[in-house]
């Protein structure tokens, strides 16, 4: 019997465009396979045993929401979270959460929010927001590689040498609307701009994350049984077809 421990970073301050749906998707895809999950909400000031966490999720937020928790994130979570990430903990961060995994986010009003520097990226805000549907061709391995989502951010993120992009933009803006890249990856830490929610419409990506987490916890032979993803893939394929034209 498999089990996974999932941490949800700042669920009250950092949850826009239904990002919580990613947690629901992860847990439901486990439940369908009789994998038990324990959910740990990471609230301001929380002391978390990050070594026990298999998969973490950090959603997006308005600049004001990010300002509420940025210093707390650096002070209380940065170091133990980094150690867990170095040993393969899976972390998915969307938009505002992604920005706070980088070195800093300079908002369009000139406020410099500190990040934890786990991803070698930095973000600079602009008065021109990057908004719309987003389609990317990712490159995490085998199988279906398209991801669909929705972006809405003022911050443009620029990648350093320590990360690789999650994929290349086929439609939409991505990291910064300039270099055609979307997201950043280091170890099993993935940041991207894809709200949606992301995982319900990209079940292959949800399973990729779950498999990484499962194999870290239960060994390389741990695998996920297949699910009937007809509905989820119909949603995915509809967006791919619309955005490709
Ligand atoms: N506040 C950040 C920005 O506007 C993140 C927005 C978001 O999470 N959608 O860039």
From TrEMBL:
Its EC number is 6.3.5.13, 3.5.1.2. It comes from the Bacteria. Residues 5-202 form the CobB/CobQ-like glutamine amidotransferase domain. Pathway: Cell wall biogenesis; peptidoglycan biosynthesis. Substrate binds at residue 129. InterPro entries: Class_I_gatase-like (IPR029062), CobQ_GATase1 (IPR033949), GATase_3 (IPR011698), Lipid_II_synth_GatD (IPR043702). It catalyses: beta-D-GlcNAc-(1->4)-Mur2Ac(oyl-L-Ala-gamma-D-Glu-L-Lys-D-Ala-D-Ala)-di-trans,octa-cis-undecaprenyl diphosphate + L-glutamine + ATP + H2O = beta-D-GlcNAc-(1->4)-Mur2Ac(oyl-L-Ala-D-isoglutaminyl-L-Lys-D-Ala-D-Ala)-di-trans,octa-cis-undecaprenyl diphosphate + L-glutamate + ADP + phosphate + H(+); L-glutamine + H2O = L-glutamate + NH4(+). The keyword Nucleus does not apply. Signal peptide: none annotated. The active site is at residues 95, 195. The lipid II isoglutaminyl synthase complex catalyzes the formation of alpha-D-isoglutamine in the cell wall lipid II stem peptide. The GatD subunit catalyzes the hydrolysis of glutamine to glutamate and ammonia. The resulting ammonia molecule is channeled to the active site of MurT. Forms a heterodimer with MurT. Belongs to the CobB/CobQ family. GatD subfamily. HAMAP family: Lipid_II_synth_GatD. This is Lipid II isoglutaminyl synthase (glutamine-hydrolyzing) subunit GatD.
């Amino acid at each position: 019997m498999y089990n996974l421990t999932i941490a949800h970073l700042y669920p009250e301050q950092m949850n826009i465009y239904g990002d919580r749906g990613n947690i629901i998707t992860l847990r439901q895809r486990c439940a369908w396979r009789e994998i038990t999950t324990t959910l740990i909400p990471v609230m301001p000031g929380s002391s978390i045993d990050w070594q026990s966490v298999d998969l973490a999720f950090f959603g997006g937020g308005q600049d004001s929401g990010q300002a509420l928790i940025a210093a707390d994130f650096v002070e209380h979570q940065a170091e133990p979270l980094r150690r867990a990430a170095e040993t393969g903990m899976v972390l998915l961060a969307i938009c505002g959460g992604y920005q706070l995994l980088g070195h800093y986010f300079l908002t369009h009003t000139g406020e410099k929010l500190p990040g934890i520097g786990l991803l070698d990226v930095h973000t600079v805000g602009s008065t021109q927001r990057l908004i719309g549907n987003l389609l990317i061709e990712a490159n995490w391995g085998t199988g279906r590689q398209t991801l669909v989502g929705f972006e809405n951010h003022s911050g443009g993120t620029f990648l350093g040498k320590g990360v690789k992009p999650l994929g290349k933009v086929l439609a939409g803006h991505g990291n910064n609307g300039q270099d055609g890249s979307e997201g950043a990856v280091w170890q099993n830490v993935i940041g991207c701009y894809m709200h949606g929610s992301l995982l319900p419409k990209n079940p292959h990506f949800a399973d990729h994350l779950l498999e990484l987490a499962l194999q870290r916890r239960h060994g390389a032979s741990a695998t996920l049984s297949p699910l009937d993803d007809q509905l989820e893939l119909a949603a995915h394929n509809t967006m791919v077809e619309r955005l490709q034209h």
